[in-house]
């Protein structure tokens, strides 16, 4: 038996319970990991509250972790017991656990020089940033971008990666302290929440707008995000921290300048082993080069998962949260 955080009902952070569970044994093409660090993400909140439904209840939570290979199932190649690996999105949620069986193909080796907690805070957020700046939109020198929640876990990575690629970055934040943090991590022009971000972006670009908006906030920002785009600009809506946005009238995209909108997900951008390995290699390369500094993080024991969720839902905090089994 091993300890794992599960929910037996949907609701506030208090529904998270520490249970004894049987992790099982690895089957065909699977690994059993003894997990050393588990990343906490807003995706986990969506699962806890039911915004993104779970297959059944009770159910585990969590979508990324780092650990050591404890046992190997039949058919696995290129991995040995004792190897240090990590994953992001390895099937249904369940990463908040001491031991976990996961598909071997979803695991990537963690390079020497990147510790477990850093890797666990990076994988889901960093792989998300990778496909947002390199594949869903090919960011490059001379472009302008607006990043919402620029001092959040994904936001800080996006700002740094975009700046590294030569993009001029605007970023919305909730207060002056977060503005300073975003500025330290590549955001050229932070915009505090009580400012009209549409007017600020339009003024700074002389009415031209930005090439791309990265919107993880959803309901509170999406309409304004569209108004910040240049003609034929792209809105990448990849989260709903303020709630799901209202339905979009397609005619509005034409009125605002033949705009493009997409709702991408990490799973669709890492559908094969090759895609996942290339994405992870790109992420670890920019980290090892120093182009991206991992976000500040808070580490908590696994049993304090409810506290981690409460912290995550506080809009006045920054950086990443990691649970330590």
Characterization of this structure:
- The strands form three sheets. Strands 3, 5, 6, 7, 8, 15 and 16 form a seven-stranded mixed beta sheet that branches. A six-stranded parallel beta sheet has the order 11-10-9-12-13-14, with helices on both faces.
- Helix content is 30%, strand content 27%.
- It has 325 residues and is of the alpha/beta class.
- Helix 2 packs across helix 9.
- It folds into two domains: 2-124 and 272-324, Medium-chain alcohol dehydrogenases, catalytic domain (Quinone Oxidoreductase, Chain A, domain 1, Alpha-Beta Complex), CATH 3.90.180; 137-263, 3-Layer(aba) Sandwich (Rossmann fold), CATH 3.40.50.720.
- The mean pLDDT is 95.
- The chain starts with a strand and ends with a strand.
What is the number of helical segments per DSSP (H or I, 4+ residues)?
10
Give the percentage of residues in beta strands. 25-35%
Could you give the order of the helices and strands? EEEHEEEEEHEHEHEHEHEHEHHEHE
For the residues shown, what is the average pLDDT?
A: 95
Q: Would you give the CATH topology of the largest domain?
A: Quinone Oxidoreductase, Chain A, domain 1
Short description:
The chain has helices at residues 42-49, 116-134, 153-164, 176-184, 197-204, 222-227, 250-255, 266-269, 273-288, 305-313, and strands at residues 2-7, 16-21, 30-40, 59-60, 64-72, 84-88, 99-103, 107-109, 144-147, 168-173, 189-192, 210-215, 229-237, 260-262, 297-301, 320-324. The protein has 325 residues and is α/β, with parallel strands linked by helices.
